Amino acid sequence: MSPRASAAAADPTSTRSRHAKRPSPADPSTSALTGVGHLLRLILRLDRVRLPLWLVGLGGTIVASALAVPPLYDTPEKVAGYSRAVGASPVNYLMSGRQAGLDTLGGIVANEISQVAQLGICLMVMFLVVRHTRAEEESGRAELVRSTVVGRHAATLAGLVYGVAAALLLATITTLSMLAAGLAVNGSVTYGAGLALLGVVYTAVTLVAVQVSTSARGALGLAGAAVAVGYLVRGVGAMEDNALVWASPFGWSQRMDAFGHERWWPAVLLLAATALLLGLAGWLTASRDFGGGLLDTRPGHERAGRLLHTPFGLVARVQRGLVIGWAIGLVLLGLLYGAVIPTIPDLIASNPDMADIVGGSADAEDALVDAFLAYIFVFMAVISCGFVVTSVLRLRTEEETGRAETVLATPVSRTTWLAATAVVTTLAITTLTVLMGLGLAVGYAVGAGEWDQVLPQVAGQMSYLPGALVLGAFALALHGLLPRATGLAWAAVALVALQVMLGQLLDLPDAVQALSPYWHLAAVPVDDFDVVPFVLLLVVAAALGAAGLWGYRRRDAVSG
Amino acid sequence: MAVIELRDIVKTFGATHALDHLDLVVEEGEVHGFLGPNGAGKSTTIRVLLGLLRTDSGSALMLGGDPWHDAARLHRRLAYVPGDVSLWPGLTGGEVIDVLARMRGGLDESRRADMVERFELDPSKKSRTYSKGNRQKVALVAALASRADLYLLDEPTSGLDPLMEAEFQKAVLELKGEGATVLLSSHILAEAEALSDRISIIRAGRVVQSGTLSELRHLTRTTVIAETDRPATAIAALPGVHEVELRGERVTFDVDSDHLEGTVSALAALGVRSLAAHPPTLEELFLRQYGDEVRA
Known about the structure:
The structure holds two protein chains of two kinds. By secondary structure, chain A is an all-alpha fold.
């Protein structure tokens, strides 16, 4: 489908009408889509490492998970046991939705991988598409490209083809891994198709986001928010077992009911949404200036305020938008998760099977709520690692763009410059952790009608803080010691997420799990707070940070 | 025949009037200097021509087509060099040249080799390692190595050293010899003077002067600094002489270019011990010629 919203139709007042009578040299081979092939070749050349990394990283996780399930559930009793346990787990509904066929191996595999596969495919297409659309436009490189024989909609179409291709590749890997695990063909193909279409929808969402925002970061923020909303809406809908699942592409994809009674009509919803979004993206492209968007930048202050008089203030100012954006996202996430916790006892009461497993007692309910809380705490903490790494690696961006050079040409020392970022990041993640704990606690208090859990829940969230600090310090160490390899910080985030979400299923060796700080921390509130790993991790973070500073003071500045 | 014909173009960004009823005509086969101070609207005009910006009103014609609606088709016959070049950090300069040329529809291999050599560009280095001047050279080679009917050059020599600037001027004259049309934007008067058949001067989004160099001669003044044996008191009375400052034997004044000859003769009669002359910068020119008018 081409975003062929005609520029001519959208703009009756343009200069074109005056020249309409002028005979234009006939050249039917040039259209708004000309140059797509060239752009795709360029994209593949630029991403010859990046795309395989995404596919190997995400695909490898999916393959390993799919192959790990059959040996674990090798008897019908074990399969039935899984089905009962998951059927009683509101956390599972919230995180992975209601997967069909949970009484089959296929359903178990799908349920186990869906969180990583669904969120992963959305994030993958989002990052890949923004990188080759708005980021290029923002950098000015797209201007060079557009001065050649490249049509107005070519970049959008190239982004679409690339996103769809990446989604199809990942979905194919998923289906093949399911087949390799010996699962039913129909279910494996249906699951893969649902996954691919989810990626396609979010490719289209991203293509709209890059028209709306004038910056690549803004576009990532918008598209990321759309992913989060879709995921959360599906989760709440699945947990409460209501129609809300039908308000989310995640729900449509899952309700193709792979490994249950497969059905293909929800795919139509996914395709229709894609078509609508692409039409919107095409219309927006045709009606905006190059470099422009819907969200225009406003004029700012003429003079620097007091805050900007120190390196610390400069870093804080530069990262203000980043911190505010994350704060809003994490508080909303906390509120939502907090609000659904008090519904757990009702869920159990309404479901006799669940009550059988959990036991009807108040203690059992409390234990379930605690398990839920422990998972939510660590899950949100892992998400907040994304902020920490982004925040620290701004150092890298500042250096590559030469802005750090400008600062270091003043009497500001390298130590001060690095410390400014370290302090800003540390203060910000501490604040963010309090805020997301507070969000969770307030959501819970409103839902439950009792406010006595606010402090313990904020404290509970805080008990996971050292994890993010270690990852941030690791990024800082990379920046100081291996500036060309700062991408490893993201690999570390991926590893930590893997350990938290799939560590048990994959039966990762302890030596690997031990690389994740969250493996060491006490699972508050299921377990009591343990001060030893908490302090030790803070020491590790401090050591990594010091190593980064040591390296940064000694190495060459990397420019350009 | 006009290759570029902009009539009464208005382009606003919010409250800012970037182009304010701008007219610009560039004839086929000429090198057209497009002069103006920073922020006058030079780049905005070029981006309109590239079909990157949509005009609010006015009529635009380039290479016989509409720059906005026929953008991709027209770009087959056009090459562009931006003033601020951004390249893909992971690609080498040589790769960037090929990528852009391929998108434009091919390049002239011999000319590519020739330009790479003349601009002393190392095409095997990654773009992230290039200096500003070298990034500029990549964009220049990419544009000059393809055969186009129209070259849009937006401050193309920013960051180049004087040797490379001379090489650039030679290359532009060669293009002109082949019959190509060049729109050369600059804020350096001397550069435009050296290359241009005609010049348009833009100020605050409007073309305020347009014509051949000799037609604009009245705009160009020369600043003269001389030491003479006898005090040059009589100079101030000569036609075309402005801003005279006399300090003992040393005199500083500006003279209109068409009165240069008579003034120099008068100076010679006073016994010249030293003489320095330089053309005014564009900014100086504007301050003098249009400063009040624009502020009013």
